[in-house]
Write a structure and sequence with these properties.
This protein is of the alpha/beta class. It has one domain: Rossmann fold, CATH 3.40.50. It has helices at residues 12-23, 35-47, 64-77, 106-121, 123-127, 160-181, 207-220, 224-236, 261-277, and strands spanning 3-7, 27-32, 54-58, 83-86, 133-137, 188-193, 243-247, 250-251. The radius of gyration is 18 Å and the shape is globular. The model has no long low-confidence stretch (mean pLDDT 95). The chain binds NADP nicotinamide-adenine-dinucleotide phosphate. Residues 8, 10-14, 32-34, 37, 59-62, 87-90, 110, 137-139, 193-194, 196-197, 199-201 line the site of NADP nicotinamide-adenine-dinucleotide phosphate. NADP nicotinamide-adenine-dinucleotide phosphate is lined by residues 8, 10-14, 32-34, 37, 59-62, 87-90, 110, 137-139, 193-194, 196-197, 199-201.
């Protein structure tokens, strides 16, 4: 039986994938921070006769310690992991800079560090599966944002947009570094941009932007059911190359600073130091 681990598996795209794989007979481990959402997913699993294959793990992935604890829990309860899907995200485009209890800027911690810890931490469990794949869901192919090498925690000149875009670019580099570091690993790392998808995401935005985003979503957004279909195809038939990027079904060239190998390895080493010390 396949094991599919999905962060953000209790809502939006992650939930869509969780329900799909439960229906397909896989064991699904869904991670989220809200117990009520986990309970609702388990109820849906029971409704499709998959209660014995559905697991909800509550974790606040803004915390490196929580992400590491999650790795340990998954390693000790799952003999192998076939698919790791990284969807946990909460945009903070406005408002003041906030810092986690471990001292990291919020977007850096949730949208990037947790994905770094889970990708590297679960590598061995993934390598025990026949066709392992990591799908890192974000915005590859969007030419915005950069790594602020001299101040990645954005202690100076912070803006929520800057932090969010930095976390996206960091995830592009995470895939490149992963492939460079483990060239002989069978794990396929897919950076994935789903396009505009109608999820709960706008409800977490501040009021004026929420209204605008919802209006734009009503015109432009794909449903979760439709958006999940090309994701499933890639997850079930991962590309042969170790690192790839897609926007929906379209393969993206790994060109430009977002996919630069030197920058990727530089960020890897910087992150390794941060995670080891668990402080910026
Ligand atoms: N929707 C789009 O149009 C779109 C476009 C481009 C890229 N994406 C990317 O697709 C991915 C999924 O987005 P979505 O729209 O499906 O999001 P969503 O509907 O808002 O779901 C986000 C998920 O992340 C979890 N989460 C948030 N904060 C967390 C925390 N601190 N710890 C653990 N889990 C946490 C949420 O669970 P809790 O609420 O329980 O914490 C929820 O399950 C994201 O990476 C996003 O950047 C989405």
């Amino acid at each position: 039986m396949q094991t599919v681990v999905i962060t953000g598996g209790t809502d939006g795209l992650g939930r869509g994938l969780a329900v799909h794989y439960l229906r397909q007979g896989a064991r699904v481990v869904a991670v989220g921070s809200t117990p009520a959402k986990g309970k609702a997913l388990l109820a849906e699993a029971a409704a499709v006769s998959a209660a014995d294959r559905a697991v909800f793990l509550r974790a606040d992935l803004t915390s490196v310690a929580a992400a590491e604890e999650l790795v340990t829990t998954i390693e000790t309860t799952c003999p192998s992991v076939d698919k790791l899907v990284l969807c946990a995200q909460r945009y903070r485009l406005f408002g003041p800079r906030t810092v986690t209890s471990e001292g990291f800027e919020h977007s850096f911690a949730l949208a990037y560090l947790s994905r770094y810890v889970l990708s590297h931490g679960l590598r061995k469990a993934l390598e025990s599966a026949p066709r392992p794949v990591i799908m890192n869901v974000g915005t590859p192919g969007v030419p915005l944002g950069r790594i602020h090498w001299d101040d990645p925690q954005l202690t100076h000149g912070y803006s929520g947009t800057k932090a969010t875009l930095q976390s996206f670019r960091a995830n592009d580099l995470l895939g490149v570094a992963f492939a460079a570091l483990y060239a002989d690993s069978p794990v396929s790392h897919v950076g994935y941009n789903p396009g505009v998808v109608s999820t709960d995401m706008p409800n977490h935005l501040p009021a004026p932007l929420r209204v605008l985003t919802k209006a734009a979503f009503a015109l432009l957004a794909t449903s979760v059911t439709k958006a999940v279909a090309p994701m499933v195809r890639l997850l079930d038939e991962p590309p042969g190359e170790r690192c790839t990027a897609y926007r929906s079904s379209r393969r993206l060239p790994l060109k430009g600073p977002a996919f630069d190998q030197d920058a990727a390895l530089r960020l890897h080493h910087l992150t390794q130091d941060l995670v080891t010390g668990a402080k910026p």
